[in-house]
Amino acid sequence: MLRNLMAACLSVAVFGCAFTPQVARLPPGQATEADVIAAAGTPYRRWSDPDGGETLEYPTQPFGISCLMVRLDAAGRLVSVHDALTSQGLAQVQPGMSKEAVSRMLGRHRSVEFFSLSGEEVWDWNVDNSTGPGVATLFNVHFRDGVVARTSQTYVFPPDADFF
C-alpha cells in the first residue's frame, strides 16, 4: 500500500495538474459550461446551488491533491474556479456537519475506514504535503452517527530501509 501511495504522489504532478491551467484561464462571466467541459471534461458530480446555478466537481482523488469546484451561474456562465482542498477549504469542516455537506465542500474522498471501537467512520483526502513531513499528508474527517465529530491529519513516511 505504501509503495502505491508513494507512486501516486509522484503521479500527482502529471494527473493533478492536467486540467487546472486550462480551466483557470477561462474568463469568468464569458466562458460557458460548454467551454468548461471542453477544457476539463465531464465533471464527476454536479451540485445544484440555491441561486439556480451549479457547481461542477472535478476531484483528483485517490491519487491527486486537488478538487476543483467550478461555479456556474443560472445562465450557465462561469463564475469562479477554486480548489476545495486548500488549507482554507479544509478549515471549513466543522463538528456537526453532515456527510453530504462535507462531500459538497471537499469533493470525492480518497478512502473510507470504519473503526468499530470508536464507532467512527473516517473519510480521507490526499492534500498538499509541501510543508509537511513524510511523503504524503492525508486530511481525515471522523464521522460519528453520520455527522462530523472531528478532523485530523495523517503523515505518510517511507518505509525504513532495514525492513527490505
What does this entry show, briefly?
With 164 residues, the protein is of the alpha+beta class. The protein is 24% helix and 33% strand.
Describe the fold and architecture.
The chain has 164 residues and is an alpha+beta fold. The chain has a four-stranded antiparallel beta sheet. The protein has one domain: Beta-lactamase Inhibitory Protein, Chain:B, domain 1 (2-Layer Sandwich), CATH 3.30.1450. It is built from five helices and eight strands. The two termini are 15 Å apart. The protein is 24% helix and 33% strand. It is globular and about 50 Å long. A hairpin with an 8-residue loop joins β6 and β7 (136-144).
What is the fold's blueprint, element by element?
Blueprint (H helix, E strand, L loop, with lengths): L1 H14 L4 H5 L8 H8 L4 E4 L5 E6 L7 E6 L5 E6 L3 H5 L7 H8 L4 E5 L4 E8 L8 E9 L2 E10 L8
Antiparallel strand pairs: 1-2, 2-3, 3-4, 5-6, 6-7, 7-8
